[in-house]
Amino acid sequence: MLIGDDFSKLFRTFEHTAFRLEVRESYNAPREVESFRRFRAGEPVDLSWAETWFSMIRQATAEGRRFARVRVVSVPLSDYSRFGLWAAHHTCDAGEDIRYLPRDVAERLDLPHHDYWLFDSRKLVRMHFDEADKFQGGEIIMDTAEIVQHNHWRDVARHHAIRRDDFEAKV
């Protein structure tokens, strides 16, 4: 399992594309907790903790590399998903292509029930979380058939998903 710097290295070393499928209802990331609390309370939210991520996306985009993700969400949106949609505006401004797919559509499309990153269409990293939604690490999957299947799921998810701004206008 990759975690910490070993996991972070994946985002600095891919050549062309980094794609994420997010299917969980919430994520318990320690750095997000206070921002989420402030968002729910209607208070100003400080995203300075995410500046390293935004900077990395801006740099990758300037180099011609692409970050993209599809978020599978339940509609109506939970507080956590509304927070994610709000925060995605900043991530999209940095250069990431974030799209949304309603959970019922994802179910009809038979998309997986696990999160993953796919780097350059050939390196698959399955995300593992504990029962409290805390990230436990990324498992590199080497099986070619699984990698091909996850590429297919990426293509299906992106085809049916709605760009962040268009999705926000609908919900």
Automatic annotation (TrEMBL):
It comes from the Bacteria. Pfam families: DUF6879. Residues 5-168 form the DUF6879 domain. This is DUF6879 domain-containing protein.
